[in-house]
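General statements about sequence and structure are easier to judge against a single worked case. No coordinates are needed to read the tokens, only the vocabulary itself. The sequence in question and its structure tokens are set out directly beneath this paragraph.
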Amino acid sequence: MARRLLFMTELSTLLAGLPGVDQVGAEQRAASLATRSIKTSAKAWAIDLSIRMVDLTTLEGADTPGKVRTLCAKAIRPEPSDPTCPSTAAICVYPSMVPVAAAALKGSGVHLASVATAFPSGQAPLQVKLDDTRAAVEAGADEIDMVISRGAFLAGDYQHVFDEIVAIKEACGKAHLKVILETGELGTYDNVRKASWLAMRAGADFIKTSTGKVAPAATLPVTMIMLEAVRDFRELTGRQVGVKPAGGIKTTKDAMKYLVVVNEVAGPDWLDPDWFRFGASSLLNDLLMQRQKLATGHYSGPDYVTVD
């Protein structure tokens, strides 16, 4: 009830008062930041940090227990022959695969994330979404990636979206909640900013760009706007919220661009897996290839990394 009253008073005023996003300015700034490079002396550190930020993800209808176990082993030891290579932040799977992943990750320190709430559409009754969330947490997930009801948001029913996030956050218990905005369906940067603030006010621990099932997925301008939101939210409330771009981030060069944007927009406090993640499947392979190149001076053959 207290959160609902907060929405009806303070938050409704806050959302209405958010400044509009200058689309041209935002895209120009993101493009400018993307041209900045990381010094060679810091590249090895940046690659290892990026590996530690990866939520290694498989969200396909053809997922099998064997594939999930293999991916968990890769998350724990991305480079089996090199014990200095860090583990990834998490594995992200469908709820049905959580028990398999929980057993495979036990004692590793790698987090177990599960999409829930009728991912990727979000088109299900709230009770179904709550049951989905509770089942994933009870099976071992310590992070839940939920999707907002984009239809309700685009219809202007912000209270419905807010109340759903509050309820799902409660259903998470001790698990962290990442709220997927599906920015490719929100239409405008103004909506991205508004949805970011709405999710944070409702209790999100992370805000996430995309499901990876809708184009466009993560983009630098959208991520920059979300980073501005978490920065400003911490200044206003004292609470820090993480950001997770997901979908379409495939190369080390891509990851480096995002790290630069994180540092320049939100600040170095967000350069940590606790506050910034990459939702990715193929990114890890390229990071490992580039890591090996830095160590040996040459690229390995195409069979150096596993094909997930």
Notes: The longest strand covers residues 111-115. DSSP finds twelve helices and eight strands in the chain.
